[in-house]
């Protein structure tokens, strides 16, 4: 994977690497934490990161492929716009509501049904990732989320 030539000044490698494909690209540090807490919930596919000059900047990053989806979104009470192409998927979120009866047992990390480009984590995994001081990610509450990244 290469850095975008549109932003040649952006050269820093983070623990979570944003990309245009909505893939979860993560560092070895993230992999260790997730593999310890959620060993059967993800698979890690190695990826080499190269900079704008095609020089290798990391061989210790991975695509974190989530293996679970959960039905957690309350579509009736959410303010969302469905995709015109993939009718079951959400394209825009203006106000997300979660179901009230989500069982506490379940995966620590997953993609919600209807919003497959987002990653949800439970409090256990969020706290472990936060305490590790990882870079390049931000955790936002899902319930009430308005679609903004901030």
UniProtKB/TrEMBL annotation:
It comes from the Bacteria. Residues 9-142 form the Immunity MXAN-0049 protein domain. This is Immunity MXAN-0049 protein domain-containing protein. It comes from Corallococcus praedator.
């Amino acid at each position: 994977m290469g850095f975008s030539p549109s932003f040649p000044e952006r050269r820093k490698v983070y623990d979570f690497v944003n990309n245009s494909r909505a893939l979860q690209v993560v560092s070895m540090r993230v992999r260790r934490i997730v593999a310890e807490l959620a060993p059967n919930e993800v698979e890690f596919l190695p990826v080499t990161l190269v900079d704008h000059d095609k020089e290798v900047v990391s061989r210790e990053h991975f695509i974190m492929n989530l293996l679970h989806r959960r039905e957690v979104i309350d579509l009736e009470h959410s303010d969302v716009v469905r995709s015109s192409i993939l009718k079951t998927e959400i394209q825009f979120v203006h106000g997300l509501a979660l179901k009230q009866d989500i069982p506490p047992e379940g995966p620590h990390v997953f993609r919600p049904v209807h919003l497959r480009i987002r990653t949800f984590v439970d409090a256990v995994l969020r706290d472990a990732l936060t305490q590790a001081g990882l870079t390049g990610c931000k955790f936002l509450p899902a319930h009430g989320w308005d679609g903004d990244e901030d």
